[in-house]
């Protein structure tokens, strides 16, 4: 595999490995990340994986562009995908309900599954964590069932509650903090995804697999969830 290298800064390069989002990309991205960390050593400032790319930030005091590219070529020489995922399997509880997931009914109508069908379909599979971004602890996961795929809201909300679970296209994610956002919200989790006590501050890391477990409101509250309604519902 030979990545396409794009300059994004005097000390940063984008390594483009793929053109399309596929779960099969992740073993290659993880293998490449591990090899790059090894060959760059202390000259590596940061390495950020995405669905199809790696953002590599190196120390200009230790390397110039030519040397960085030589190390990248070394890292990708005879690279093989990881045979098994190095990520963890996690279960995250979610209270799927229209009072905290205002688009749950809408997705039920669009898909023809109804709200219960959306819950069943969304929680029936595990999701690959592809990347972290947008906000600390915000994990981009996929791929959701095609019948649940929905475009982002035309007008993003100014405030989305922490723990809100959403869908955008074939991605799904939980907002770790209160923030603006335009994803279709279908529930809320009591889990804390961003915590300064955690390694890397994030509960989730690229390569992890996540399954969402439906829970009732009482369990949601018992686990520390905030059941304040997002919108007034009938």
From TrEMBL:
The keyword Hydrolase applies. Residues 3-204 form the Carboxyltransferase domain. Pfam families: CT_C_D. Keywords: ATP-binding, Hydrolase, Nucleotide-binding. It comes from the Bacteria. GO terms for molecular function: ATP binding; hydrolase activity. InterPro entries: CT_C_D (IPR003833), Cyclophilin-like_dom_sf (IPR029000), PxpB (IPR010016). This is Sensor histidine kinase inhibitor, KipI family. It comes from Ectopseudomonas guguanensis.
